[in-house]
Amino acid sequence: MKIVLGGDHAAADFLPVIAKCLTDRGHELLELTAPAAERCDYPKVAEQAAREVASGRCDAGVLICGTGIGVSIAANKVRGIRAATCCDTYMARMAKEHNNANIICVGARVVADPGIALSIVEAWLDAEVQGGRHAERVGMIEEIERREH
Ligand code: RB5
To answer: What pTM was computed for the model?
Structure first.
């Protein structure tokens, strides 16, 4: 898969760990990473990543900020994006299986450890989208989006 990876200054220690894992797993990466320790506004990186996924130029996205909240709110403003903030591996698996999340968001200051963030991202990558009632509900989300735009 081609995966876009981005984050703000709060993610500086986390992004290299995630990037190495994703490339080791054979994914192609588009990194939207500010130079370490440089202040970076999360809405900008989140919008850029979301547009890469919504356009199909990237298959999926990983976004990290302090809480994982700001990047998900911003990314979800882009049509076609289902960005989910996940604090543990269960949420990450459900975000893929039930919600077909195409971007995962993690809070660096919440999980506090790059290894934990990595396990969350891996759980999401390894999970499979489920069909049936879950796909129908994702369709209902898309219907809300169609009514909104
Ligand atoms: C940056 O200090 C912080 O506000 C940001 O990383 C994020 O947590 C926003 O939701």
So the answer is: 0.96
